Structures are given as structure tokens and as C-alpha cells.
Amino acid sequence: MNDFINIGLDKETFIYCFIILTGMISLIYFLKLDWKRYGLLFILTTIVGNILCYIFVKLKFYSYPYLLFPKMTIMPFTAITFSFPIMVLFAVRYSPREWTWKIPYYWAIIHTGILFEAYALHQTRIIEYNYKWDMWDSYTWWWIYFLLFEWIGGLIILDNLRKPLSIQHLRYGKLGWALIHFILIITIFLAGYYLGTLQSK
Q1: Distance (Å, rounded) from C-alpha 19 to C-alpha 13?
Q2: DSSP single-letter state for residue 169
Q3: pLDDT reported for residue 63
Q4: Could you report how far apart the first and last alpha carbons of the chain are, in Å?
Q5: How confident is the model at residue 4 (pLDDT cuts 50, 70, 90)?
Q6: pLDDT by residue (tens digit) across 65-84?
Q7: Is the pLDDT confidence value at 2 over 80?
Q8: What pTM was computed for the model?
């Protein structure tokens, strides 16, 4: 049994289990809204996300040193399935109507995601960058993935199934504006610190 399951009290196991459990609960929420449309979007994002990740792992761009099922797979398919696709579902449902406001909206989402990836990279054994891969490569692919499915989601998810953020909440001085700028300032500062530590080594 130990050959198939590596379960302990370490933070990697906790993070994986938290992602999977939260993702499953979130998926149930979206399937209740419209299981055909949100289910289709979930399947598409899952297939693309796992295929891309698998290709990058096989090309040895990065790897996953810690897995719940190390003898059965080379990457955490379940955790990936219940992380990136679920983030896309939330992002599409609440995305502002106008592209002028979608960009700062996704900017905040992607910077938050990259922050957690940086934590996983430096503070856990979940992911490890290898041959010619760095944070900028991840950042670029986050943008490609989310903007692609923002477009696809707009074709699949009907307006009555979405709850776009009001642009009034994103205007100067509003809570949304303050939250987006807080996320961007903090993550850009941390990115600068990260680059500084790399150059000092």
C-alpha cells in the first residue's frame, strides 16, 4: 500500500487534499447552475490543462517531486483537474462584460495564481523547475490559458449563467479597484525580490 499512496502530515499532502476537496465542492456548485454548459467548459479546460502540463513534464521543463500516487503517475492529474479548470469557471462566471475591464480582472487572478505557484516552488516539494523553464514561462502560459478559455467560455456560457462584476466596483476609489491594485503591487514587489535573490546567487 505504501508503494501507491504517500500520505503523511506534511504540507504537500495537506495542500493537495485541500485543492481537491475545494475543487470538488466548487464543481458541484457550477454543475448545479448548468451541468451541460459548465460541465462542458470544465471538461475542455481539464483536457487542455492536463495535456499541456503532461507535455511540459515530458519535455522536462518542470517536474513534480512530491505526488500522492508516485507509482501511478508522473504528475498530479487530480490536483490539476480541480485547480486550474475550477479557477477558469469562477473567472468566466464573474468576468466583467467589457474587455477594458477584463484585463485588470485577469491580471489580479493570474498574479495571485503565480504567487501561489512561487510558494509551491520555493516552500514545498510540489513543483520543481528544470530545463530552461522559469517563472516568466509559467506567467506567459497562465495568460494564454486563461484568456483562451475566457473567449471559449464566452461562447459556451450564456449571459444568464454569468454574474459579471459591475464596472462600478472596479472604478477608481472603489473596493474592486483597491483590491486589484493591492494584489498587483504586492505581487510585483515580490517578483522583484525574487529576481533580486536569483541574481545574488
Answers
A1: 10
A2: G
A3: 95
A4: 41
A5: very low
A6: 999 888 788 999 999 999 99
A7: no
A8: 0.86
* Per-residue cell: 104: 485588470
Hey, what's the cell of 193? 525580490
Whole-angstrom distance, CA of residue 153 vs CA of residue 31: 15
**Whole-angstrom Cα Rg for the chain:** 18
Nearest C-alpha neighbor of 57 from the set 34, 73, 33: 73
* For residue 5, pLDDT beyond 60: no
Q: Are the C-beta atoms of 34 and 40 separated by less than 8 Å? A: no
**Which residue reads 486550474 in cell numbers?**
84
Output 161-165 pairs: Cβ under 8 A, ≥24 positions apart.
161/33, 161/34, 161/37, 161/38, 161/93, 162/92, 162/93, 162/94, 162/95, 163/93, 163/94, 164/94, 164/95, 164/96, 164/97, 165/94, 165/95, 165/96, 165/101, 165/105
